[in-house]
Amino acid sequence: MKKIALVPGDGIGPEVISSALRVLNAAGFDGELVEFDIGYGRWRRDGKAITDDDIERMKDCDCILFGAITTPPDPGYRSVLIRIRKELDLYANIRPLRSSRIDVIIVRENTEGLYSGLEMLGDEEARTVRVITRKGSQRIAEVACRIASERKHLTIIHKANVLKSDVLFLKTCREVAERYGIRYDDMLVDAAAYNMVIRPEMFDVMVTTNLFGDILSDEGAGIVGSLGLCASANLGDRWALFEPIHGSAPDIAGNGIANPVGAIRSAAMMLEWFGEMERAQSIHQAVDRTLSKGVKTPDLGGLCTTSEFTDAVIDEMRRAGAC
Ligand code: NAD
Ligand code: MN
């Protein structure tokens, strides 16, 4: 039986994770769940957001299903998610963006770049070191090329005109794309941000560094219609973590109105990673049908609560005979 580390986290994290679990159950997925109490709530209670022991226990699971965790801008607090990504070497962040306007997969490098953790904060000056390695660029480019080889083409997103670190990133990605023999081009990140809004159809698979990928994927979520709709997989060679791309949304937490689609689709991506393609497909299709009937949470202009929306998705699955 698959062993899944469950991290509901803070804010709307537990609300959307409970929806994802209900849908997984309805799809007939049967796994062992190991729940972790980590995050900002835990930090405020006992001064520790996550411990070495938590990391070790996570490594004993096959993968992680993650809600969202609050990261306060406090110099004494280190992002839990960034630590998990690093310790489990989850180097490839895959973020599909799909709607009537856009159909793109962002492949974001997840362990280095500006999130290297090499930082210095003083009163007069602060520094963050942007680390780009050949190995890191190579392995993310390989993931992107494998995805692009089953789709149309790859765009390498960078700022190599200004940043020397991106000269290495661009050069390495080009070498890998040549080796894979796929169609590819490249674009400066600022132009890409503009073009995603103006003509999103020009993109198919985008590969980029950590911070650029973080920003472009939230932009893409805006084009899709809501941050609450988008899912992601953080993949390594051994473990994986699945999470909606949104954060803990403290502004709406506790009201029961969070959009659970990102979390539900993240759970479906977890099933795909396990090779359970049919179950995953039945979930994606039930979500598509629910949305197309106009059943929506307030972020999309609807009136549904999180649990009403989830009920509607499960009804759709029943109707299709998927559960
Ligand atoms: P956010 O993604 O939490 O929220 C941004 C806006 O989108 C808010 O108005 C929120 O209400 C809305 N939104 C987000 N998800 C939604 C959903 N499922 N349904 C409806 N509306 C939704 O980003 P933020 O406000 O910048 O950050 C809040 C906290 O979350 C911060 O502490 C931040 O560090 C953390 N964060 C965590 C993650 C993560 O755990 N992966 C990612 C991003 C931000
Ligand atoms: Mn983000």
From TrEMBL:
Residues 3-313 form the Isopropylmalate dehydrogenase-like domain. Its EC number is 1.1.1.85. GO terms for biological process: isocitrate metabolic process; L-leucine biosynthetic process; tricarboxylic acid cycle. Its cofactor is Mg(2+); Mn(2+). It is an enzyme of class 1 (oxidoreductase). It comes from Methanothrix thermoacetophila (strain DSM 6194 / JCM 14653 / NBRC 101360 / PT). InterPro entries: IsoCit/isopropylmalate_DH_CS (IPR019818), IsoPropMal-DH-like_dom (IPR024084), LEU3_arc (IPR011828). Pfam families: Iso_dh. One of its GO terms (molecular function) is NAD binding. Belongs to the isocitrate and isopropylmalate dehydrogenases family. The keyword Nucleotide-binding does not apply. Keywords: Amino-acid biosynthesis, Branched-chain amino acid biosynthesis, Leucine biosynthesis, Magnesium, Manganese, Metal-binding, NAD, Oxidoreductase. The keyword Ribosomal protein does not apply. This is 3-isopropylmalate dehydrogenase. Homodimer. SUPFAM superfamilies: Isocitrate/Isopropylmalate dehydrogenase-like (SSF53659). It comes from the Archaea.
